[in-house]
Amino acid sequence: MHRRLLVVLVPLAVLLVAALGVPLSVTVAEREMQETYVDRLNDVGRFASLAETALTTGRTEALQQELARYHELYGIPVAVIGMSGTVLLGPADAYREAARAEPGLPRIVTAALSGTRPEPSGKWAPWDDSALVVAEPVGRDSEVVGAVVTISDLSKTRHRILVRWAQLAGLGLLPLIALVAVAWPVSAWVLRPVRELDAASSRISRGDLTIRADAEAGPAELRRLAESFNTMMDAVENAAQRQRAFVSDASHQLRNPLTSLRLAVESLEPHLDTAGDGRQVYDVAVDELKAMQRLLNSLQASARMESMRTASPVDLDAVLATRVDRWRALTATAGQTLTVDVPPGLRLLEPPGGLGSILDELISNALRLSDARVVEVTARIVPAGAGAGRGDASAAGGVVTIVVRDDGQGIDASERAQALRRFWRSPRHQNVAGTGLGLAICADLVGAAGGELRLEDGLPRPDGSGHGFAAVIALPAVPRAASSSDAPAPSPV
Question: Which residue intervals define the domain HAMP in the entry (predicted)?
Fold first, then answer.
């Protein structure tokens, strides 16, 4: 999260530095160019005054030597141009060679010979390679006898400008580096409570109501937010505990009176007249008492299972090893066939209360409610990446799906959403023992582990009239530790 904050802050800082640095860089370049131009202007002014005296007196040897010496020292050709446009004094060859690269030179010379000081030629941008041409008329007004012209290579000036720009860029990087160096730990300190709140919310969504946020770190606003979050979670946890305690206490307190009532009702059986209506009323009362006892047992089991809110990794092979034999015995007693198709090595996150208890409930539903002939248990892993192979339990981020399906009566698509609600029962099963809590509790426990329980079509019915019932459990796959990756996988069930 603090990376995203830096992504916002750093570009703003770059824009601020650029807004200050670009005008300063332009000013530096203009100053360097202006200093160079003033130097050349002073030089040609001096040479123009010397040339006027030399041309008037005819003593040009000293001026010729000075112009040659100037060219030798600075590499800048200086020439005295006559009214006819020919070179009178100076290094003629160097001047002509430099003049060939300056298309604006004739205009400047013509203006100087006419007695005016022309504007300097060339572009002053540091990335342009044109020369600086400066001309000064020799003489005044109508007494102009020639012009002094210099053609200056600005490569050294441009190099100085680029060096200054590099220095300014380096100075501009210092505040950016300081910003990043300071903003990284500061943003981490500011946003750490937010990350902790996000992690706490994620764990709460998986059913862990004991998690609390750190209310001692971070800015004052986030500390107050963490304190409010912890207060809210205390209230939620207390409410959940009171609810479970009420269900557990109520079912426990009702058990003894209900047992006494059942014993009292059953003790009336010897005194009933077999020919009267008392026997029918007695049977109804006993059945209702049995149903109430089953409901109390389910409520107590629900309270116990919901009190366990921690999901933990488990090997599916280990869970099935303790259950499959009993499932086969139960299905054989009911005249049904059980098939198990589960690849070895699947490891997943076990819901609170145990995965075995949830599978027991689904198998029990198939035996009691579906009137099925075949019950099938399958498991597969759906990898997070396309490259993971089927049945590869080491694929991080995958989902293990366990399907319990049968070829029995099934549930209509319109009733599937209601079947996951507490105390709901299908009209076809009103006379079958049950409380309507099993699937709802299983769905809650699977959801507490970050998974999902959904109902789908099962196996095709033998008479071709439709499909049976299928319960699909999807739970997060857990990658195996590196130390156990080389261990042999258990044999399939």
Answer: 188-241
